[in-house]
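FORM 12-B: Structure-to-Sequence Request
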């Protein structure tokens, strides 16, 4: 039995998972960091929005082209040069939600064989559509956990256990 439906469901639900974690976040909590050089919730959301557009491009390349080259990107350069410290968290979450929904609609209902199509990532080598989708689901879930940890640390620092 294939695990594609399970992976697709995790992929689809990622915006909901993030929204639950972010319920009630506002003000200085958006910019709180657990240590120097670590990202804030604001920065993580901007990163998620931008990364989802990268996933959108990669998925379309692999679905439309024969074994395309998938370029890596420097997430720290993106954070710095695209000014993640000033991006609006609600707008970033909405961008993530919208692009993820479009990506899901593209994938939903495709034959399972399509998920074996491949591209060549400049750092990871051969990747399949399945790899990209599962990686995107894992990525959002990992950052949801990270944001929950930031929220917990913020409450601890403010004495609001």
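FORM 12-B RESPONSE
SEQUENCE OUT:
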């Amino acid at each position: 039995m294939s695990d594609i439906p399970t992976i697709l469901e995790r992929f689809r639900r990622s915006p909901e998972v993030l929204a639950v974690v972010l319920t009630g976040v506002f003000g200085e909590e958006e910019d709180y960091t657990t240590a120097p050089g670590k990202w804030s919730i604001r920065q993580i959301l901007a990163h998620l929005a931008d990364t989802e557009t990268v996933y959108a491009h990669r998925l379309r390349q692999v679905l439309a082209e024969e074994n395309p080259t998938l370029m890596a990107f420097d997430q720290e350069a993106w954070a710095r040069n695209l000014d993640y410290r000033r991006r609006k968290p609600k707008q970033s979450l909405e961008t993530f939600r919208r692009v993820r929904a479009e990506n899901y609609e593209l994938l939903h209902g495709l034959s399972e064989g399509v998920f074996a199509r491949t591209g060549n990532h400049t750092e990871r080598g051969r990747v399949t559509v399945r790899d990209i989708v599962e990686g995107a689901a894992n990525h959002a879930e990992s950052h949801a956990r990270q944001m929950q940890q930031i929220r917990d640390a913020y409450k601890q620092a403010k004495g609001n256990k």
